[in-house]
Amino acid sequence: xKSPIQNYLEALHRELVHERGGQLASYIPELAxxxxxxxxxxxxxMDGVCYSVGDADTPFTIQSISKAFVYAAxxxxxxxxxxxxxxxxxxxxxxxxxxxxxPHTGAPLNPMINAGAIASxxxxxGATPQAQWQRIEAAMASFIGHEVExxxxxxxxxxxxxxxxxxxxxxxxxxxxxxxxxxAKLENYFRQCSVLVTCRDLxxxxxxxxxxxxxxxxxxxxxxxxxxxxxxxxxxxxxxxxYAGSWLYEVGMxxxxxxxxxxxxxxxxxxxxxxxSPRLDEKGNSVRGIAACKRLSxxxxxxxxxxxxxxxxxxxxxxxxxxxxxxxxxxxxxxALLKDxxxxxxxxxxxxxxxxxxIEYVIRQMLTLASDTHSFILDMHQVIxxxxxxxxxxxxxxxxxxxxxxxxxxxxxxxxxxxxxxxAPLSKTAGTGLGFLSFEDNDLAVEWCENRLxxxxxxxxxxxxxxxxxxxxxxxxxxxxxxxxAVGTHQLYRAGTPILVSGxxxxxxxxxxxxxxxxxxxxxxxxxNQRISTLGTGVVFGEMTLLGAGRRSASVFADMDTDxxxxxxxxxxxxSTRDPRFRIGxxxxxxxxxxxxxxxxxxxxxxxx
Length: 609
Known about the structure:
By secondary structure, the protein is an alpha+beta fold. It folds into 3 domains: 4-300, DD-peptidase/beta-lactamase superfamily (Beta-lactamase, 3-Layer(aba) Sandwich); 311-455, 2-Layer Sandwich (Transcription Regulator spoIIAA), CATH 3.30.750.24; 467-608, Jelly Rolls (Sandwich), CATH 2.60.120.10. The chain has 21 helices and 21 strands. The strands form 5 sheets. Strands 2-1-8-7-6 form a 5-stranded antiparallel beta sheet. Strand 17 (518-523) and strand 18 (529-535) form a beta hairpin. Helix 2 (66-78) crosses helix 5 (129-144). Mean pLDDT is 88; it is low at 456-462.
């Protein structure tokens, strides 16, 4: 089964591949020779998972995207104060190749225009231009996650046609921004722009910045954390040239584009995005790349101005119905099956405000568990809200899990408690059909999942219980079972009928459910009742009267038409008087049942701790 994120990216790619606006970058002859139809999208999570579609592994030259990472290397090598004396951080509002210098100091206005990038390249660590190139190469490799390669043909093409950049370099030399031979250092700039990358590489570079400077796969630190925010700051305000303001307003992520057709976008703490499509608009940005990032931001809520958190926080405790079964009591056959299969019912406790990255993480964990899962229970008790885009992904996953081709896994919700911040987005995005299945509490949810695991409830209820199968009468001799059956009376209780009422004096009756189902309810202080258990075919209730209970501690209602065999305690006493084995057997079975109930209650407490 595919992740909903993957399905979304594939649908987005199919839609945008028909966009053919823009032109190839013709001022660098080699860039005008690339295939204009290439188009890839990649999204990388903070734990290194990559979702990709299209030409995600097609090499192209990084071009101006390199500026952000060489600026990062300069900050790491020289420190913020020194770098600030050579290149500013103010948006220029001009094209990428503009000559935007401070009128007094001659420093370029920011490191994302060519003048600022050339300045950044000239100040990375290294006693010679060759040593500086080795530093640039190593820095870029650390962000990508593997060694880099230069497209020599593009490098030569850039060097042969880069007359404007030569003029900029000599001007920087004039203001003492560039020291030494400006032409040697300019060649490093041409070379860094000619490094070959893929869309996948760009996404991991972006994810490394999003992950506070730590590569999400290698876990190697590529940049001190105090400089990550500086790099992201200039990317946010200057990374898209004279489109930067509109980009931040419409997309809301720090980004950097390149005339090779690439764009990186960073959502700190959540995602790194790489997009590649070589047709450019008049500002030098990929047409399809901008369209894809706008849609990603809008459709799945990727915006630095929205709430963010560690996505793994969305998923708390995970446990199974083996440690937290329902409080329903049923026959030995069903109990044996559930004992063997209850681990296939899995609880996932969700937390906090659920955004797309948190839900993506939850769905990914569900996918790893799905092969051994029959039903998921998503406990929403600690959830304060869910975004509409996250709810849409969760509903898409829920529907996909339900498909028989994916194992027919049911996904249910519990403890939403009519909270509109959760129920409204889930309802709005549930699509056509029956919507989503939600239960008031975990016990109702797990009971439904148990019924599903055992088969349809009606089929189970139609079975006729046998006295020998009841826990209370287990292992009694056949002659005593026959005596017991002889003193019982059959009683049919219609659906909704009260059978026992809490607080009433016990009349000594004990009930065996031959078919049907009842609920055990206890009164609450506010006048309502709390269901504490459901009893099905083959189960006994009212047995506490054997211990001399004076008043009924709970009410019992028939959930459906229920056929019971009713025994009077006085009749059981007479059988016991004739054969003491009868009372001994009943008390031993009752003690064993109470011990099991205590064990299950302890497991519940441990599971919920």
